Amino acid sequence: MKNCLSKDLDLKGKKVLLRVDFNVPMENGAITETSRIEKIIPTIQLLCEKQAKIIILSHIGRPKGKVVKEMSLKPISEKLSFLLKKKVLFNSSSIVGDTKFEIDNISDGSIIMLENIRFNKEEEANDIKFAKKISDLGDIYVNDAFSCSHRSHASIDAITKYIPSYFGLQISQEITALEKITNKIEKPVTLVIGGSKISTKFKIINNLIKKFDNIIIVGGMANTILKHMGKNVGKSICENDSSALVKDIFENSKKYNCEIIIPSDVMVSSDLNGIGNEKDVDAVMDDEMILDIGPKTISSVEKIINKSKTVLWNGPAGYFENPNFQNGTKKILEAISKGTENKNIFSVAGGGETVAAINNFKKSNSFTFISTAGGAFLEYLEGKTLPGIKALNQNV
């Protein structure tokens, strides 16, 4: 990427509009998980060191162009100040002349966060006039919000037409990691993919089948395949109308010589709070639900991961929220982590449930790269061009 934020840029006294994604989970006004904030700190610290005037643009929730008190960024500005050990000013005004005056008068190396950009209906409309108004607040623009870059919004897309624009440190790392796992692959390469619906991950599987050696399908997605193969999945999460998708996946796997791995044994229970019983996939009863992969499947998956040079993980193996059904997810995580720590595997993990599982087992430092991007992460893996990335590349 040619237009990356670098240590060579002279930014002293320059007003830098920094678009980030601080859309973090909150309960009763308190932030419950801070990884998205923590990931942006290196970019902010670099800008502070360069004595730039940092203007942070972000959002939380979906206020639909209206001011919603519970979606204010003020608590997030306070959390950022705590993490940086540095004062973060907060501007609660709408983007008007007063905001520009306040920004112009902050000192070099200072940080000011503006109120939720989605309080303005023009943001999600990718309104050109609104984008120009935002651009007038700064001298340069930095996008460090990969997780928002699949959106054609004013502070992501249209703004790049009016101001010199750069990729931030975090977004650069994200793109580099995803390029390495999709285009600059070291083989053998394995995808471990889970989730409740195969229909939502179908495009990812069919895009990666052409490049990957192994695709391990677990979770509710595997139940759909098992049912397609004539197995009884009882009360398990399952899609009944996805036979054409499953058929397409297996036809493409043969065409591109990619092995599809599904569970041979599972852990079942009559309800989510159960203890769990180990069963072959041929022995599931009508009143049972599949909630994890079994030990034989775990052993097969571990062997495949141990032979891989590159691993992408998206989606847990089972209902890991119940300790009785977390073994599959835990063992997959441990196998990938061990290979990564021994420098044998280049590993990338992403998706909300995947990140939650990694945090649950305290393995956040055991992957080459962990994406918190959600929708943008999945759309990139589908092979889509993300508007925010395209905009930056077009306006070099």
What's this entry about, in short?
The protein has 396 residues and is of the alpha/beta class.
Q: Which percent bin holds the helix content?
A: 25-40%
Residue stretches low in confidence (pLDDT < 50, at least 5 long) are: none
Judging from the principal axes of the Cα atoms, what is the shape?
A: elongated
CATH homologous group name of the largest domain: Phosphoglycerate kinase, N-terminal domain
Provide tags for this entry.
Rossmann fold, alpha/beta, 396 residues, elongated
Explain this structure.
The chain is α/β, with parallel strands linked by helices. The chain has two domains: 15-167, 3-Layer(aba) Sandwich (Rossmann fold), CATH 3.40.50.1260; 175-381, Rossmann fold (3-Layer(aba) Sandwich), CATH 3.40.50.1260. It is 37% helix and 17% strand. The chain contains 14 helices and 17 strands. It has a six-stranded parallel β-sheet, with helices on both faces. Strands 11-10-9-15-16-17 form a six-stranded parallel β-sheet, with helices on both faces. Helix 7 packs parallel to helix 9 and helix 10 packs parallel to helix 11 (327-341). The protein starts with 14 loop residues before the first strand and ends with a helix.
Sequence-ordered SSE layout with sheet pairings:
Elements lengths: L14 E5 L6 E2 L2 E2 L3 H15 L3 E5 L16 H11 L4 E3 L5 H8 L6 E4 L6 H4 L3 H8 L4 E4 L21 E3 L1 H14 L6 E5 L4 H11 L5 E4 L1 H10 L14 H13 L3 E3 L3 E5 L7 E4 L8 E5 L1 H13 L2 E5 L12 H15 L4 E5 L1 H9 L8 E3 L3 H7 L5 H8 L2
Parallel strand pairs: 1-4, 1-7, 4-6, 5-6, 7-8, 9-10, 9-15, 10-11, 15-16, 16-17
Antiparallel strand pairs: 2-3, 12-13, 12-14
